[in-house]
Amino acid sequence: MISLKLGAASEVTPHLLPCKVEACSPARVEDFFTPTIREEPQTAPSSEKVYSASFRGRPLRGSDITLPEGFTGIVMNDARQSQGNAEGKEFEVTRQFSHLRYWNLQTPPTADDRVTQAMTWPQLACSLHTPLPVSSTNSTNSC
Questions:
Q1: What pTM does this model have?
Q2: How far apart are CA 80 and CA 91, in angstroms?
Q3: Cα-flanking dihedrals φ and ψ of residue 136, to 5°?
Q4: CA Rg, the chain, in Å?
Q5: Pairing of strands 3-5, 73-78
Q6: Which of 24, 25, 77, 139 is the most exposed place for a label (fewest CB within 10 A)?
Q7: Cβ distance 98 to 67 under 8 Å?
């Protein structure tokens, strides 16, 4: 059984990097990564902010994404540091977030990026699974 310990989780802005970091421990990310983030000049008045940074010498270009309405992201830690399968695992929610910053290697963020497309899925899934009204007078859509 997997259980969650819900507590007073503080708000955080997670960074989704295009790499795998072989570590499972806390890191002082704000000391090393955040100060090097620069906002790039906007190319169009309505365009979203694009950020640039580097990770181990590789250029990164990023953007912020807001989670779909009704969703909250959480960051969890293994409360008991248990090994093996998920049976009997207990997780503690340490942080929560309503938006995240994702990064691409070299290329600027676009609407075609996987993470951007994934954020459209909840609304699409709701539309697909909402029953169609029997008559046009009973149209109810909970999405």
A1: 0.72
A2: 8
A3: -65, -15
A4: 19
A5: unpaired
A6: 25
A7: yes
